């Protein structure tokens, strides 16, 4: 029997993206001989995603949503039953902070960091100090650390050096799951396409101002002054969606902008298929530079223009050949819209296979085996 690993997750996958790694790497790691278990919250969306992405050999253990103490207690109980060689914590928070002393066995702890909470501008000073304390504590708590962005890799490399701790560090961004690219996931009924001659721009994300929502709307408004042969499809929910809909009504943009709300993973691929280009805004802030925009990796297999910003992980992926706009200047996005319509966007010479969960799993397996005896 191969090595046992448990992915310890948090919340609902439709709201917390960190669970995507567990679903994405489960099957490939199993094919390499690993024994895979996932601990996840008992909710319909998690069960649906698990059934879509995990084969029958992946063991799923559900906990009930509750207080932090309740969730830690349930997870600890499950871990003691499984007794894995590795515990992979997909989101390092108080709800995933398992007291090692209560486990009664000694697994290797792998902690993933996919964002820099201490760099979030909206947090007050005290919350930033607490977030920084958690980042430092993770180095003492974990045996190995995975970072989902190049910025985080360098950040934790410096932090580890300051603390003088002997811990293995890996850079492993998110990826796309080839399982959900199968034909049965393409459903074209009721998709909001009005005219085959229209260029379709697709945005998927949280509907908030700081995620570039109104940059997209203003760019569409400017483009409508020049032509009508386009449609912007907006997928997602968020606290500013009603404000955005009012903006669309105010400027008579309902013929070129469509809000479709939340779309489940099994239907997303159909929208990706009909899109002519994807919109992926990223702010030039520490918060955004540090995070890993998982959606960009989902777009790569479709080999269509990805309109994004020249910061952080998008620049790591595309380099100087990317199709970039300034998220604070809507006219730069309007220019990219026009380039797509005129077929003048930069083509991407990127092999999507390099950014699949299969590739990430191969690299992860090599890293773990190489560093098994590090401590």
Task: Write up this protein.
With 375 residues, the chain is an alpha/beta fold. The chain has two domains: 4-175 and 356-370, 3-Layer(aba) Sandwich (Rossmann fold), CATH 3.40.50.2000; 180-354, Glycogen Phosphorylase B (Rossmann fold), CATH 3.40.50.2000. It is 38% helix and 16% strand. The protein is built from 13 helices and 13 strands. The protein has helices at 20-31, 44-53, 68-82, 125-141, 150-163, 213-224, 241-250, 265-274, 286-290, 294-299, 312-318, 330-341, 357-370, and strands spanning 4-8, 35-41, 59-63, 86-89, 108-113, 144-147, 168-171, 199-204, 230-235, 257-261, 277-280, 306-308, 323-324. The protein has a seven-stranded parallel sheet, with helices on both faces. Helix 1 packs across helix 13 (357-370) and helix 6 crosses helix 12. The longest helix has 17 residues, at 125-141. The radius of gyration is 21 Å and the shape is globular. It starts with a strand and ends in a 5-residue tail after the last helix.
Class computed from helices, strands and strand pairing: alpha/beta
Provide the β-strand percentage band.
Answer: 15-25%
Number of domains: 2
Q: Count of DSSP helices?
A: 13
Main sheet: strand order:
3-2-1-4-5-6-7
């Amino acid at each position: 029997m191969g090595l046992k690993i448990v992915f310890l997750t948090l919340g609902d996958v439709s709201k917390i993206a960190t669970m995507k790694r567990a679903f994405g790497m489960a099957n490939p790691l199993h094919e390499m001989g690993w024994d895979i278990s996932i601990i996840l919250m008992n909710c319909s969306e998690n069960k649906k995603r698990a059934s879509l992405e995990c084969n029958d050999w992946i063991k799923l253990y559900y906990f009930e949503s509750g207080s932090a103490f309740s969730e830690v207690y349930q997870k600890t109980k499950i871990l003691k039953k499984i007794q894995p060689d590795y515990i992979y914590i997909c989101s390092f928070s108080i709800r995933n902070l398992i007291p090692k002393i209560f486990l009664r066995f000694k697994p290797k702890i792998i902690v993933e960091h996919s964002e820099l909470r201490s760099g979030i501008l909206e947090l007050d000073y005290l919350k930033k100090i607490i977030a920084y304390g958690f980042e430092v504590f993770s180095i003492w708590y974990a045996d190995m650390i995975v970072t989902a962005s190049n910025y985080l890799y360098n950040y934790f490399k410096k932090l580890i050096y300051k603390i003088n701790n002997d811990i293995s560090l890996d850079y492993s961004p998110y990826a796309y799951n080839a399982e959900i690219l199968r034909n049965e996931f393409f459903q074209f009924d009721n998709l909001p396409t009005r005219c085959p001659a229209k260029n379709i721009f697709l945005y998927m994300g949280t509907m908030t101002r700081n995620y570039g929502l109104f940059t997209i709307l203003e760019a569409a408004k400017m483009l409508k002054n020049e032509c009508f042969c386009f449609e912007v499809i907006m997928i997602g929910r968020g606290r500013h969606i009603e404000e955005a809909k009012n903006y669309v009504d105010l400027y008579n943009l309902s013929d070129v902008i469509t809000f479709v709300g939340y779309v489940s993973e099994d239907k997303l691929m159909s929208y990706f298929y009909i899109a002519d280009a994807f919109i992926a805004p990223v702010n030039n802030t520490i918060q955004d530079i540090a995070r890993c925009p998982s959606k960009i990796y989902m777009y790569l297999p479709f080999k269509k223009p990805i309109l994004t910003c020249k910061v952080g992980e998008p620049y790591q992926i595309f380099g100087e050949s990317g199709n970039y706009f300034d998220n604070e200047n809507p006219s730069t996005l309007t220019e990219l819209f026009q380039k797509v319509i005129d077929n003048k966007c930069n083509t991407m010479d990127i092999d999507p296979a390099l950014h699949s969960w299969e590739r990430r799993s191969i690299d992860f397996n090599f890293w773990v085996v190489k560093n098994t005896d590090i401590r």
